[in-house]
Amino acid sequence: MNQTMNGLLTIVGPPLGALLLALLPLHGVMLVDVGTALFAVLPLFFIAIPQPVRSRENGTNKPSIWVDLHEGFRYLWGWSGAMTLIGGALIFKVALTPAFSLLPLLVRVHFGGDAAQLGLLESVIGVGILLGGLALSAWGGFRRKVYTLLMGLIGVGAGIVVLGFTPGHLFFLALASMFFMGLMIPMTDGPIMAIFQSTVAPQMQGRVFALLGSLLSITSPIGLAFAGPVSDRFGIQVWFVIAGILCMAIGLVSFFIPAILHIEENHQAKGPVKTASPSEVAAD
Q1: CATH number of the domain enclosing 94
Q2: How many other C-beta atoms lie within 10 A of the C-beta of residue 34?
Q3: What is the pLDDT of residue 250?
Q4: Per the structure, how many domains does the chain have?
């Protein structure tokens, strides 16, 4: 359902943003952004969200972001399946993020298009995400969620490779590849979130997801630092081909890594959680 909602937002967001820019000055559009954020936050004052009890060895220690991230890392460190899966996800993000950042240049330089063609590509992938999310909701994926994840990863990589090899005069093929990528994205993002939500101990999920979010955010500048020089030297399409092959390779190789295939059975959801004090963080 989350993936379906993301697809709907991808479809609606760009034209709605263009409409607001036509009707309002830029600062007015930014105020709309603030208003929608308040709309999302205000219900939290009236909705009770259960909070797991958080125990610490020393009750006088105040929580800090560094202690939380450190505890999340310690929790994952002895879990080979999670660490291997996260490593693959980081490589996937390093390859994929620049591809979407380079999409406007690909449309203008390679396909000779303009904002209309770019908007069409982005809307098409949104339609794919919407339909892929609906399909995943109805189907539920394979019994082993990791199989659905790896199938989606290979599919996303295949779509990027096709986009990279598409000749400039076959824009419809680029649309088809973007639509296929959209279908496969929920098959990748949905299962990986479900795996961690069902296998990470409830009292550790906030810290683990904060760590994952931080690591995945770091991949964006790293990927762009590599993609820029490669695209300048060899052409924009080359990065799409490299990124697609890399994603497909990660998915195929993962089928031969037992730690990833059995991550849903070999987890720490019921294991003891030892929290660290700030002094232990400094010592480590």
Answers
A1: 1.20.1250.20
A2: 9
A3: 94
A4: 1
